[in-house]
Design brief:
about 70 residues, OB fold (Dihydrolipoamide Acetyltransferase, E2P), alpha+beta, 4 strands
């Protein structure tokens, strides 16, 4: 849980996500959750500043990655 967030993303859930080929490593990133994903869900992440800010609805926020979809099956 974040104790201090930028005002543009205040109230937004942040998730720690890993690419499928990085599972089990320490390589991960933090993404704004746009779809109410949960722990263990397979998700689709937009990882590019402008597109991430647009998708998350935070055009002025410090957003570099956003969860934009949940995969129903693998």
């Amino acid at each position: 849980m974040s104790t201090c967030k930028d005002e543009h993303i205040s109230g937004r859930k942040l998730l720690i996500v890993q690419e499928k080929h990085n599972i089990g490593t320490k390589k991960s990133l933090i993404a704004v959750d746009c779809v109410d994903a949960g722990i263990g869900d397979w998700v689709i992440v937009v990882h590019e500043g402008g597109s991430s800010r647009q998708a998350s609805g935070c055009p002025k926020g410090p957003v570099d990655a956003a969860v934009v979809g949940v995969v129903d099956y693998e």
